[in-house]
Amino acid sequence: MALFDVEVLTRGATGSPASAATTVGVAEDRADLDAARRLRHATFVLEQGLFAGSDRDDTDDDPRALTLVARDPAGVVTGTVRLAPATGDRDLGWWVGSRLAVARPARGHGAGVGAALVRAACAHAERLGALRFDAHVQRPNAPLFRRLGWEEIGDEVAYGRPHVAMTWPVDRVARLAARTKAPLGPLLAPFAGGPAGLGGRGFLGDDAAPVPGSDLVAATDAILPSMVERDPTWAGWCAVLVNLNDLAATGAEPVALLDAVGARDASFASRVVRGVAAAAAAWDVPVVGGHTQLGVPGSLSVTALGRTPRPVPGGGGRPGHAVTVTADLGGGWRPGYSGAQWDSTSGRTTEDLQALGSFVARSAPAAAKDVSMAGLVGTLGMLAEASGCGAVLDVDAVPTPAGATTGDWLTCFPGFAMVTADEPGREPAPAGPATSRACGELTTGAGVRLHWPDGRTTPALTTVTGLGRA
């Protein structure tokens, strides 16, 4: 049985802690599962009479379902809870907890077994990629859930008894945006003066921006030093990839790259350069210059230049525009970066990469942004923020690869993915190997909300960069 510290994994939720001798873990063998089911039967069939004969249901046969058990110092199972995806076909990141049961001798506010199980369920749901975690709670137990930070959705009747629909406020998307983008507004304020400051009207805060007085578009990105040290050749590839994605979001055709490499020695620098050169050759864009410094910690940044007479802004959307996600679903997780970096580009041909890169230029939407560090939802939030709007994203409609959970896909770096906004019904151009799907809309207000198959929407984030309308 895998064990963990439920206090650490639940971000300090309030409520009575379980006894120090109580452990909570996943029921991984038949003995644990049988003990959990006996406890459920004693609680829901014999004691409460909620079910006649058995409380088993289809969720028990779902291979994705997880059963947790609490044990006392003697190893006796004193409590159990179950969690599973709410949708039967594919995991959309919507999970539901159920069958919370505590043995009679272990009950009571002071024992804390029920609270420990709920906290553990929350931690596991988030670990498994949940962006929404619900429970249908018997009304007498609702105060416990409220103390633990759960929020009420509304009253309901289940199995003939009063229940309260409740939800755990998963903040994965908001935490990612806060970590990667929230400081930008105040931090970059000194650059915002003048008509072209920080990109100018429509392009405020865009990763790529028009160069005043020309048809040039410029973009620059630095790669995390830890990634340069850990995987220098892949870092070189990604430095080109992210810059060309930035140009592609404006509809610009890339014409040149420049790199700035720092390395402890020539051997290490050559590994970075090989990655940059391989990517430049794959996209057929020349590296025309740059700077190399040896005897220093690893670092890498790349600048890309492109041309377009009509650049597409990131802040060109308005309420009522349809949101389309265009993503290359090929490839898989980069080894060593599972759940964080999807590699869809290293196996593509030059023809494929150029078709992806020209997609925005050929579609000419009202607004576009490439998905990067803030993930897909955070990127939609930046587009909406720059457009002076809010947004709703239909989770079920987002094109998602089979090898990724929805929670990971909406918060990872996806290789190639674009978020565009345009008039409803206006179809985007073909995008080579990528898949395009309308999956949301821009709205009045601010922030991004996620729309689920049951019709409910949940908040994902409010502001992203704080830069305001572009």
Automatic annotation (TrEMBL):
GO terms for biological process: thiamine biosynthetic process. The lineage of its organism: Bacteria, Bacillati, Actinomycetota, Actinomycetes, Propionibacteriales. It comes from the Bacteria. The keyword Cytoplasm does not apply. Pfam families: Acetyltransf_7 (PF13508), AIRS (PF00586), AIRS_C (PF02769). Keywords: Transferase. Residues 24-171 form the N-acetyltransferase domain. This is Putative N-acetyltransferase, MSMEG_0567 N-terminal domain family. The keyword rRNA-binding does not apply. GO terms for molecular function: acyltransferase activity, transferring groups other than amino-acyl groups; thiamine-phosphate kinase activity. It comes from Microlunatus sagamiharensis. NCBIfam families: MSMEG_0567_Cter, MSMEG_0567_GNAT. Gene3D superfamilies: 3.40.630.30, PurM-like C-terminal domain, PurM-like, N-terminal domain. InterPro entries: Acyl_CoA_acyltransferase, GNAT_dom, MSMEG_0567/sll0787_C, MSMEG_0567_GNAT, PurM-like_C_dom, PurM-like_C_sf, PurM-like_N, PurM-like_N_sf.
